[in-house]
Amino acid sequence: MDRVLNPIIFCLSIALAVFAVYVAGYGSFSPAIFRGGVVLVSVLLSALVLVRTGLSPDGKMTDAIAVVVIAAVGIIACLTFSNVQIKMDTEFYFPNQTEVWIGFFGLLAILELTRRLWGMSLALVGAFFLVFAFFGNYFPGFLNHSGFDLGQVVDAVWFNYSGVFGLPVSIIAGLVWVFIIFGVVLKGTGASDSLLRVAMVLTARTRGGPAHAAIVASSLFGTMSGAAIANVVGTGTFTIPMIKKRGFPPAFAGGIEATASSGGQIVPPIMGAAAFLMAEITGISYGTVAIAALMPAAFYYLSLFTSVSIEARRQKIQIQDKSEIPVLTRADAIASLTFIGPIVVIVLALLWGYSAAYAGFSGLIAALVLSVLNPAIRKDPLSLLKSFSEGGISAAKLMVAVALIGMIIGVVNMTGVGLRFANLIETLGAGSLYLSLVLTMCGAIILGMGMPTLPAYLIVIVIMGPAFVSMGVETLVIHMFVLYYAVASSITPPVALAAYAAASIANANPITTSLMAIRLGAAKYVLPFVFITYPSMLLVVDFNWAEFLWLVPRLLVLVWLVSTALSDFEFTKLGPLQIALRLVAAFLVMVPSLPVQLAGLALTAGLVVLNRRAAGQSVVTA
Fold first, then answer.
1. Left (φ > 0), alpha (ψ -120 to 50) or beta: where does 615 sit?
2. Fewer CB near the last or first residue (10 Å), C or N of the chain?
3. Is 329 exposed, middle or buried (0-12, 13-18, 19+ CB in 10 A)?
């Protein structure tokens, strides 16, 4: 059976990837055909992949027949959508009863495919909203609505451009897909290997060595790929063993790779395509979004560097001798162009005023052209087809999840629950912005568990975003806030997929590794509250030079305090009281009150002096 399925999947996935590239470069066509077609092909390709994985070792069907039935229903429903939309474009037409039932079963097919591809979390959310659409008249409080019958729900959610086939499908297929393909192809060209080698040489004279190299390489490659797990597997198989070899514990090696890889999605210029998606949704220019992401990302990775340096000092790891450091050769310099070149092309395309999709198209073409610099590609250029195939499969799986997000958006729009949810947030927050933000943080992390970052971000921002806009929070600020916690969900237990992937490579306990990733990436959980309080950190929202210049040194203090407290080490081991006082000081330096900030800085200075003295005494005693 594999001999039949594999060629079909390979050809179909490459066709989807090529189509994504074509659309990015030359544009799409009729929404009725385009949106229905991309969901149809995604359903078919995802189902074929599931069928292949559902075959037993002897090639016999296990659960594959059920997947085939689900896919057939989904495909028929997509074709029906396109047919109905074409009729609506030319005449006054309403779906008949047969078409309504086909659309309903199409919704169920999307739900079940999502469950099989991405797990229960997203599927349960989708199922809740579908039930809510039909039976909202039985729900209590703010959830109550008059209820809708089958025809109304299917018409609004399936046969309407505000539902399953709405704007998210168009944005993902027309913009995000090309960057997914680009990230996978860039890895296939060997760009990640050359980047990693350069990072290893540049960080060789630091205490962290390969741990610092993992941060550099994973962050830069992560911003291109946007896939935390793929990034962990791609770079982690090389960096994690080297980190362990330097003397770091296995859980630390896995944790630093996981948090660095997931953090690539908050690093401009691309942010795993999140920057472009955010620009499309908010109507804010891409350049503004990228600039806004700059400072938070810089302090996040500064905190990772700091945590690694502190851990290296605690483990008494010494700086590598110069004689052991590899030297970059001319071949390395040439190979680095496979990574640098496409980035430069993308940035230049954006600066010259081309669309984000065309910039991704240009970057991909540049990556393919520069791939000839890799001897392995020159020897076997057809190996890039495998990258296109992997990219096509990833794109199809993502589209299934996005189709479900569209269903949720359709229900939110038809029931008006979004506005009522905004009122609930304000009520639960008891007028407190920060309590409301904590609730949103928890929602983003929980909803993001087990699903890609972009769908998690879309769900939360659609449901919770309007609440904060009505409370006076700038649109870009709340979008960045939600994105950070959607990213953080990949390292947050119990479903910390990036951390678990790293743990398997490090031969470490998965929960211990995920907790280590949280410790090392604690800034990811703190910084959003900072830029909510001080929008100047984003450089483009209510920017004030005085506020910004006073904020930067306090952020440096915050990073140091949190890193040392969670590592329970500075110049020597910290006791429980010192850890607690450091966390208190970290809070005080960020409180929007100058006397409180000065008190926090004074407490910080005292704690640092005391720990240095304790370290000196321990040396004398020894």
1. alpha
2. C
3. exposed
